Amino acid sequence: MRLHRHLVSRREVLLGSGALFAWTQMPRLARAEGRDPRMLVIVLRGALDGLGAVAPVGDPDWSSLRGDRALMLDGKTPALPLDSFFALNPAMPNLSRFYKAGQAAIVHATATPYRERSHFDGQDVLESGFAKPGATDSGWLNRALLALESDGRVNPTGSRAIGVGAVTPLVVRGEAPVMSWVPQNLLPAGADTQARLLDLYQHTDPKLAVALQARMQLASLGGAGGMDDPLAAGDSPVMPPLARIRAYFADAAGTAGRLLARADGPRVGALGFVGWDTHVNEGATVGQLANLLGALDGALAAVETSMGEAWRETVVAVITEFGRTAHINGTNGTDHGTGTVAFLAGGAVRGGRVIADWPGLKTAQLYEGRDLKPTTDLRAVLKGLLRDHLRVDDAALASSVFPASADVAPLAGLVA
Amino acid sequence: MSTSAPAEALLALQRFGMGPRPGSIGAIASDPRGALLAELDNPPPFSEAAAALPSSAKAVRAVADADARRQAKAIVATREEAKQPAADASMMAEDAAPKTSEMGQKMAAEAIPDPRRTIYLAEAKLRTEAALQATIGFTERLVWFWSNHFCVSAFKVRSMSGAYEREAIRSHMLGSFSDLLLAAENHPAMLFYLDNLGSMGASSVAGINRNKGPNENQSREALELHTLGVRAGYTQDDVISFANALTGWTWVPPYSSPDHGGEFAFNARMHQPGGQTVLGKRYEQEDIEQGRAVLRDLAVHPATATHIATKLARHFIADAPPPALVESIARAFRDSGGDLKETAKAMIAAPESWTLPPTKLKRPGEWVVAMVRSTGITTVDPERYTGGVALLGEPLWSPSSPKGFPDDEASWIDGIGRRLDISNAFAEREAEKVDPNEIIDNVLASQVSGEVKQAVGQAETRQQALSLLFMSTEFLRR
Q1: What is the Cα–Cα distance from B271 to B288, expressed in whole angstroms?
Q2: Is the distance from CB of A146 to CB of A174 less than 8 angstroms?
Q3: Fewer CB atoms inside 10 A, N or C side of chain B?
Q4: So what's the pLDDT on residue A8?
Q5: How many helices and strands in chain B, by DSSP H and E?
């Protein structure tokens, strides 16, 4: 069908998906150690094919599993070797560079505790931090911030949630004050109008007052600048070509990096990128997935560049709701699966290694005979980062942040 | 909650309609519930101008044609640019199009406009004007609801997104849910959106010859999002069996037929032979009837009734609807065999619809339409409208996933600041023509709080007064 060449997957782009949501305070305990840690969480919505991103080239069953769609060291577009067993998708040269410099680690065969295959429930578990979907309306990152003692606000003008955004992702929803930022190109209403409206809300609708006040405080923090609003031309849902997707990922991540690097900027942020639901013509080596991974790779490089010195104290965690089927489906894509990868990048990462208890790829070794079996609980990874990088304490991690996860020990040694 | 006649009329217009226009409270105040029921029985006809819009199949053929002509033009322009003899092009692989230069593509794009955008904007205009012109707009709200329930995305099927709504949703949303479900699931826009066009049975003729198999996507989303709801007891095997039943549900390729390209087609050679078991029931049909039979059973499954009732109650009445309210709607759905008009009437009959406070935060599109309606404006510039709602996070027909746009306050409240920018821009344009006190007195029948009246009265400019009014709780919530 020729038309496929012109119409791109629904998840290949979502306007506003690059919105940044960030915490505007400094963690006290880490500051007491003389550190000023930054953490950025990037959520890939749609379920990343972990095997298409990081291939187990040393597994004897690998090439027969994916056939000529398998990423190989001697393929037409050769994969980038990571160690004697794993190789990285060649669309990710920057991640490979970080890895060689000891600034990136990859966790493979990982998954949240969710074992069904609904995107929406899967994202709910990924972002809520609960073992079951639909359990709460707040996210683990927000609750981790609640558990952190603050060493004072970095934004001197305020703290509450700032809304210029479209839809707030669950991972940052909750009681902790979080600001959000999306590209802004409308001329904002005047300060006087805002003040009058705030006064009206304070008398009639406290929730709206909170939302409006937050936005006013963000405005006073000053524009982040540099990011093109994809709607600026007024031609809203025109499908941006690959170059625009790359630019959008890089701009969103670069903006996040710039804000996180500022002395008076936030310290913890989250972004979401959509487009990973590769049911048709996945194109792990050449095509959709390779393009998206390339855009993600560019986004990671943009964070590094825009953070400057602060990169040294940064961890970027890239996570997704679940993986995809080990086999290729009937339409040269992959369907919803289970185990996948998580990328950890940044100067604070103890990198240069793939962390995996490899389950194997024989049918009997696959989860339900079809998916990469998860052997590392993603919560262990996230708990390890929150504990060792931001200094969220163990008790909070096991109870409020990732409820009922006492049996999932934080993975130690992820940060340098 | 006040139960005065104007108050109940305003509630009817806000909760179930598109918001008050000049004169609409007066028109329904004697019997607001009766007026809602009357609109269900006699829905305002959709614009006659829709007859001039292309069907989804025609739209997709126009796109295919324009793309092909554009590509040819780009190739010619590229050849000329490189002064390259045409013979060289034959050295390319047979099915690979010759390479085109950036300049060649640009020239072709300028010469042959993209029909996607033109069609999308024309559809958006009629749809939005229907919402602006309706006296109440209950049936339009139902169109919006069902369109979001059975959403496709204009990111992927742009030229078809408006026609899909007219053909699948608008024509069926007051009939039986079963008919609506079938119309949505076999519409080419849905089959394209959820990747079913190329899905073929592994043991089908085409599947064997091409060594291909089924794609689970539409099967899964139809179970999870369109009918039973997530965690309703179906298994991975059910997903696969239903996907097999849907194999062969495809379209006539747009290029292949000037009269029927882009229309739905059942391709028997792609259909997985043999029976399928879905939710414990055996479906022995050997053709399109197999998938239809599964869908008909899903349509009347009790879990579907509960899922639909919950979504309706959450959309129209409260983020966390009381269980008794959901059950009364679900019962109407079940007892009527999925009659959607009866189901809508059950919402009107439910006492909770008239007693629960107006806590729902309107979604951006509803809010924009209500704002414009209050000024009496009945026409729209579709570029401005679609650009505006996209800025507010609700680009028309373009949710980021098959789940559609969310229907809860937490998802949208952070966008309040952006709404102020939009209302401020709109107020700037309309300030000379529109009097905020007129809106309060005549459109809202003075049903606004003293604080709002005071804020409007003390505003420095008319623009500011309008902006404050449009951003008041009375406009944002319902």
Answers
A1: 8
A2: yes
A3: N
A4: 27
A5: 26, 4
Q: Give me the residues of chain A with pLDDT under 70, please.
A: 1-25, 151-168, 179-188, 217-241, 243-244
What is the amino acid identity at position A25?
Answer: Q
**For residue A121, what are the contacts with CB-CB under 8 A and spacing of at least 6?**
A114, A133, A134, B230, B231
Amino acid at B350: A
Binary contact (A329, B383; C-beta < 8 A): no
Q: List the single best residue of A137, A335, A368 to mutate versus B (max B Cβ within 10 A).
A: A335
Residue B80 confidence class, pLDDT cut points 50, 70, 90: confident
* CA dist A384 → A31, A316, B443 (Å): 18, 13, 58
- Diameter over CA atoms, chain B: 82
CA distances from A192 to A199, B60, B211 (A): 11, 49, 66
DSSP secondary structure, B65-84, as one string: HHHHHHHHHHHHHHHHHHT-
Please list, in sequence order, all residues whose beta carbon lies within 8 angstroms of the beta carbon of residue B34, skipping any fewer than 6 positions away: none
Of the candidates A279, A294, A358, A274, the one whose C-alpha atom is nearest the C-alpha of residue A325 is A279
**Residue B333, number of CB atoms within 10 A of its CB:** 25
| Residue bearing tokens 């119409």 | A7
Going by pLDDT thresholds of 50, 70 and 90, the confidence category of residue B26 is very high
Alpha helices in A222-363 (DSSP H): 242-261, 288-307
Q: What one-character-per-residue DSSP string does B451-476 give?
A: HHHHHHHH-SSHHHHHHHHHTSHHHH
For residues A64 and A327, give the distance between their C-alpha atoms in angstroms, rounded to a whole number: 10
Question: Within 10 Å of residue B124's Cβ, how many Cβ atoms?
Answer: 23
Dump pLDDT digits (tens) for B368-427.
999 999 999 999 999 989 988 988 889 999 998 899 999 999 888 878 888 998 998 899
Task: Locate the domains of chain B by residue range.
Answer: 5-32+360-476, 56-116, 175-359
Assess contact for A108 and A355: CB atoms under 8 A: yes
- State the span(s) of chain A assigned CATH 3.40.720: 2-184+223-401
User: Which residue from A6, A215, A332 is facing B416, i.e. has the nearest CB?
Assistant: A215
**A342 neighbors A42 (Cβ within 8 angstroms):** no
Whether residues B455 and A200 touch (CB distance < 8 A) is answered with yes
Whether A163 sits inside 8 A of B63 (CB atoms) is no
B245: nearest Cα among B185, B206, B287? B287
Our measurement of the distance from residue A257's CA atom to the centroid of its chain's CA atoms, rounded to an integer in Å, reads 13
Helix (H) or strand (E) holding A354: strand A353-355
Q: Which residues of B touch A120 (CB under 8 A)?
A: 224, 230, 401, 403
Closest residue by Cα to residue A284 from A324, A249, A239, A312? A324
> What is the least distance, in Å, from the CA of B43 to any CA of chain A?
30
Tokens coding B223: 């179970």
Among candidate residues B199, B269, B276, the one with its CA nearest the CA of residue B242: B276
Residue for token digits 């509960």?
A: B306
- Residue with the two structure tokens 């479900």: B181
What's B258-273 look like in SS3?
CCCCCCEEECHHHCCC
d(CA B216, CA A326): 14
